[in-house]
Write a structure and sequence with these properties.
By secondary structure, the protein is an alpha/beta fold. The chain contains 4 helices and 5 strands, in the order αβαβαβαββ. It has a 3-stranded parallel beta sheet, sandwiched between helices. The two termini are 23 Å apart. This is Receptor ligand binding region domain-containing protein. Keywords: G-protein coupled receptor, Glycoprotein, Membrane, Receptor, Signal, Transducer, Transmembrane, Transmembrane helix.
Length: 134
């Protein structure tokens, strides 16, 4: 199921109750420690993403009837570890609306794998990967 069709399905279902917002899940793999990738940028990326989720969730005019949740893992900026985490995010419930990555080696793995799962990758360029949208 593509992200667009999933969003249409969620939109068609609408909120079940005004008091009980429907959760929309986001998966994120962030380099929380340097590991062999050499960059622990997740220590800055993750708090920024969490603040953005808090901002969206605190505004009743943005995604009314829904609440964003994030499932995270520590990629250590290692492509191999991130591949396992990508698989886990895709196949472990709940269904994720989108996936986030915090370093280039991990984003490369996701971009190379995107056509297999019909994922859209958003980033800085798409010359090498056709599913990559700047």
């Amino acid at each position: 199921m593509t992200v667009l069709s999933w969003l249409v399905l969620v939109g068609a279902l609408g909120p079940l109750r005004a008091d009980d917002p429907i959760p929309l899940h986001i998966g994120g793999t962030f380099p929380m420690e340097a590991g062999s990738g050499g960059w622990a940028g997740g220590q800055a990326c993750l708090p920024a993403v969490q603040m953005a989720l808090e901002d969206v969730n605190s505004r009743p005019d943005v995604l009314p009837g829904y609440v964003l949740h994030m499932n995270t893992s520590n990629s250590k900026c290692q492509a191999g570890l991130a591949t396992q985490q990508l698989y886990d995010l895709l196949y472990t419930p709940p269904t994720k609306l989108m996936l986030l990555a915090g370093c280039s080696p991990v984003t490369t793995v996701i971009a190379e794998s995107a056509p297999v799962w019909k994922l859209v990758v958003v980033g800085f360029g798409r010359v090498f990967w056709p599913n990559f949208f700047p």
